[in-house]
Structure formats: structure tokens, C-alpha cells
Amino acid sequence: MESQDQIINRVAGSSLITFDLETYHQPGERVLIDIKDQLYQELILREKDFRDFVKTHDWPQYQDKFVAITCSVDAIVPHWAFMLVGLAVEPYARHAIFGTLEALETELFRRSLASVDWSVYKGAKVVVKGCSKVFVPAAVYVDAARTLRPLVSSLMFGEACSTVPLYKKPKGDS
Fold it and tell me: Distance (Å, rounded) from C-alpha 131 to C-alpha 167?
């Protein structure tokens, strides 16, 4: 005879599948190259000075790092300037983009998620894990939800013990 005081772990016995975005985080140092310091009075790009910077800058310091290239001040910077920096850092960096560190993180996650076999989630009850030890941009959560929605029977956010429902497939949809 079972005791009425017996504790049952319903989370362990549930059919929920946890989708943990943290597992798709690429380890490595993230670095921002902000060209604002190369502008005259943080306003104007002087081509000769900028080309001298590109020639003399210590590019090997970016070896095996993830790099975001940006200009954080409101200045008119020709596209070729960002292209020049991108070409200079490319032989050293693991990956470089134009944008913020958050845009870099989003791209790195998207690249990792491109290798996911999403078919394993077909018809499943999926919870997208909410807590993470690493920064996961909101855009990545949106991408995951958008990709999972047509596959799953239900989609939730949070932890298995405390979820926020996001989507439930209507009855009769296959």
C-alpha cells in the first residue's frame, strides 16, 4: 500500500523535452573593434590616417577571437572603412562581423543552430530553457520559437517545473 505522503516527481515522469540554447553557445573570447577612436574628433574619417591605422594595428591580438566591428558614435563612415578592418582582422579572428557584440552573439548562435536536427522535436512537448549561465540574445529565443512552432505539439518557456505556455497546436492539426 502506497503512503499518501509519498512525493512523486512529476517533472521526471513527464514527456517534456528541454531545448537548452546554452548548449549551442560557442566558447571563446568576444572582442569589439570600435573605429570611433580612428575618426578625427570622432566625426570624420580621414582616409590616409585610417589606412595608416590599418597598416600598423596589432591584428594578431585577435587570433582565435570572435570580433564585432562597429562605430559607436554618430558619424558618417564609408562602408569601405569597415570592409578594410574586416579584411585586416579576417586572417586572425575565428569569425568577424559588422555590428555590436550582441549581433555577434546572435550570429554565432544562429550558426550553431543551423546544424540542429529539428525533426526530433516533431510532435513533442518542448520547453525552451529560460535560465542560462551564458548570455543568449532575445533574437535567438525568437528564432528557436519560430523554428520549433510548426513541429511541436506544445511549446513552453522556462524550466520543466515552472513553464510559461507559448503555443499549443490546435486539435485536429497534424
Answer: 19
Residues 55, 50: Cα–Cα separation, whole Å: 9
Please identify which residue in the block is written with the cell numbers 559607436. Answer: 72
Residues in the chain: 174
| Cβ 109 vs Cβ 136: under 8 Å | yes
For residue 95, list its beta bridge partners: 66
The Cα 132–Cα 14 span in angstroms is 22
Which is more confidently placed, 9 or 111? 111
Is the separation of the CB atoms in 122 and 93 below 8 Å?
no
For the chain, the distance separating the N- and C-terminal CA atoms, rounded to the nearest angstrom, is 42
Q: Report the pLDDT value the prediction gives residue 121, as an integer from 0 to 100.
A: 97
Distance CA 108, CA 96 (A): 10
* pTM recorded for the entire structure: 0.85
Distance CA 110, CA 25 (A): 10
Closest CA to 163 of 14, 22, 25, 23: 14
Write the Ramachandran bin of 30: left for phi over 0, alpha for psi from -120 to 50, otherwise beta.
beta
Place of cell 512525493: 7
